[in-house]
Write a structure and sequence with these properties.
The strands form four sheets. Strands 1, 2, 13, 14, 15, 16, 17, 18 and 20 form a nine-stranded mixed sheet that branches. Strands 6-5-12-11-10 form a five-stranded antiparallel sheet. The protein has a three-stranded antiparallel sheet with strand order 4-3-19, with no helix packed on it. Strand 15 (205-208) and strand 16 form a beta hairpin. By secondary structure, the protein is mainly beta. Helices cover 11% and strands 34% of the residues. The chain contains three helices and 20 strands. The longest helix has 12 residues, at 160-171.
Amino acid sequence: MGNALLHSIHVHPVKAFRSLPLREVVVEPWGPTGDRRWMLIDDGGRVVTQRRHPRLALAAAELLPGGGLRLSAPGGDPVTVSVPAPGGRTERVEIFRDRIDVVPAEDDAVHAWCSAFLGADVRLVHLDDPATRRPVDPGFALPGETVSLADGYPLLLTTTASLDALNALVAGGDHADEGPLPMNRFRPNLVIEGTTAWAEDTWSRITVGEVAFRVAKPSGRCVVTTTDQHTAERGREPLHSLGRHRRFGDRLVFGQNLVPLAPGTVRVGDPVTVLA
């Protein structure tokens, strides 16, 4: 582990949209700055993700100063979104098993843009107060830990060595023509290089540069990983290979969920140290 480094950083300004690579990012208690503070909801107030709408992989969100966004997608003009004014009307929505309060985008044209792109009635909402709105899963959380609109934890870590090992399994399996798979299938925040394959399974506490993290639990993977993030087409991998080789109980595992122990900045090239 002496040569382990932070290989890349990725944020997802709108949950389920294309990932955005960064050279450095401030890690806040609930996750990287700019990561998953926005999401789409359907007409029933439920989160909209690539699980049901793989086309979301084709939409991109650029971060603007102040937390606003510039949304773009194939076949249409971009649209700009401003952060809702403080104290605006909140709305109770569902994100998996959680019911939380969010603030709808103020411009109706933004909701219309998102609906036209997806071909479904959706609205864009913002998590205005990540410090209080949504606690981490109490089965794996310490008191007071909160999370953005990520699936369940502030950050997701993967390693290049484990991806190489998984791609070797894909190459030897029934759907070898689908490999090798790129890392963006797994939508991580932090990608580490210089480890052995699956080393992250044994970690409980690490530092990346100046920031210490608690490793909360392995990341169980879903159908989103089978979605090509450039075409939105779906295949069988990596779930087929994970099911044969990386099944832990009822979960197919790739990567680890992290909770930061204190705020700080991480940068590509930062050293990674395993503390426990």
